[in-house]
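Subject: sequence -> C-alpha cells, single chain

Hey, anyone have a minute? Need the predicted structure for the following. Not urgent.
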Amino acid sequence: MSKRDLKKYLNELNKEQLEEQIIELYEKFSTVKVYYNFVFNPKEDTLLQECKIKISHEYFPIKTTGRGKKPKMRRSVAQKYIKHFIVLGVDPFVIADVMLYNIEIAQTFSSGHPIKQELFYKSMFNSFEQAVVFMIANGILQEFKARIVAIHKETISQKWKNESEFDAIIERFEY
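Reply:
Had a minute. Here:
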C-alpha cells in the first residue's frame, strides 16, 4: 500500500475507527508502543544514561561473585541503541554523544588492555567514520570537534594499527 492510498483510507475512517486502529497497533506491535511512550514522555536523559551504562558494561562488566567477568567488547550493543534512537527521533546531539562515547570507552579499555583482534580496530574506525558523517549531516560537527580530535589523538598515543585511516577522516575538516 502506498502512502497516498493509506492517506485516502484513513480519511474515510471516522474518529472512533481511527482511535481503534491506533490502539490496536499500540497493543499489537511493541515498536509502536515504544514510539508512543517516547513521544509522550521523552526522557532522553534517562535513555542516554541507560545506554551509556550498557555500553560501558561491554568493556568493564560488573563483577558478580569472586571472579571478574570477561569483557565482550561488542560494537553491536552501541549500534542497536544508535539505530533505536534514530528511529525514535532522539535529538541528534544525544545520538552523536552516544556514538563518540562508544569509541571513547573502547579507547579507555584498550589503553589498559592490549587488543590483538584486527576486527576491534576496524570496528572502532567504522564507528568513528559513521559518527563524523552523522554529525556533518546534522550540522553539529563543530560542537563535537574537540572530542573527535581527542579520539584521534588517542589512536596515535595508543599506536592503533589503523591510525592512518583516522588521520584521513580528520584531514577532511580543519581543526
